[in-house]
């Protein structure tokens, strides 16, 4: 059983920054495609960023503001979020896909095998 454990959510004002972490005690993130998704009630889960052997990929809505990275030694996935906007408010999920490359389908939730339980972020205006 693979467990992905997100942390770092909370409340922040618009323009602020926040960092999310995803720990994976039983899973080696370094050799696999890892991603962050987000979801608001009533909407589908949206791919935010992914990181595989080809490097980082971002959704247009967060390009230039968010940075996804891996700490290979600690086996932790991060999402650094800057210039946060109210529309970034959502529950953020860490996801894992046992492939080296994330590929063109990186933003499709159905492509991922493992999920965390999510961490909530609220950005106030």
Tell me the total number of β-strands. 11
Silhouette: globular
* Oligomer category: single chain
Low-confidence stretches: none
- Structural class, judged by helices and strands? mainly beta
Mean pLDDT: 96
Note the run of SSEs as H and E: EEEEEEEEEEE
Terminal CA distance: 40 Å
What share of residues is helical? Answer: under 10%
Strand content: over 45%
Q: Radius of gyration in whole Å, from Cα?
A: 13 Å
Largest sheet: 7 strands, mixed
Number of helices: 0
Question: Could you walk me through the main structural features you see in this protein, from its secondary elements to its overall organization?
Answer:
- With 125 residues, this protein is mainly beta.
- Helices cover 0% and strands 47% of the residues.
- The chain has strands at residues 5-7, 10-13, 18-23, 33-39, 46-52, 55-58, 66-71, 76-81, 90-97, 114-115, 119-124.
- The strands form 2 sheets. Strands 2, 4, 5, 6, 9, 10 and 11 form a 7-stranded mixed β-sheet that branches. It has a 4-stranded antiparallel β-sheet with strand order 1-3-8-7, with no helix packed on it.
- The model has no long low-confidence stretch (mean pLDDT 96).
Throw out a few tags for this protein:
single chain; 125 residues; mainly beta; 7-stranded mixed β-sheet; 47% strand
Summarize the structure.
With 125 residues, this protein is mainly β. It has no helices and eleven strands.
